[in-house]
Predict the 3D structure of the following.
Amino acid sequence: SAVISQKPSRDICQRGTSLTIQCQVDSQVTMMFWYRQQPGQSLTLIATANQGSEATYESGFVIDKFPISRPNLTFSTLTVSNMSPEDSSIYLCSGKGFNTGELFFGEGSRLTVL
Amino acid sequence: GNSVTQMEGPVTLSEEAFLTINCTYTATGYPSLFWYVQYPGEGLQLLLKATKADDKGSNKGFEATYRKETTSFHLEKGSVQVSDSAVYFCALKPGNQFYFGTGTSLTVIP
């Protein structure tokens, strides 16, 4: 199985600022994803992080707001840009294992925007 | 399209009670089915999975059977413990992408 570490685990930010969340996987995964989990709701896929190229965004999410990088197979970042209170959420990094195809998750980054 | 419909919570049970959390799905093709659990303050962890019809996934006393005829994957446990208090997510994977249900919060009281 893969162990996924995220940081920061939580942060409180001011409106209009940007925050970058880092995600490190301890072993190689085939694909990496970023999800958003708003209070009391399910997971919403933001984008698939592609190694060495632009991420693939889901409907409703754009690169200017959520730029994503994946410079190698085990590391990715998500930036939440020009934040507003509506961006307050838990952001989860996940990776799909090579052999099992299951999805592994980080502990999440809880973001509060004032 | 692909979607998961999960029993709404919250669910509150006494210790040693029987648990069922319903999950039904719509999908193209032959998806794999999963249950994930999220303990307070933690990320999601895989609880169990089934990859084809009639498969039964099991772990930590939890079970779920892949029922193609009823497109269901209900989660069951015969005797819940306080430590099972968590949010449970049903998910399906028809291809490379995962689709999650809205989650069911379970609280087990002593």
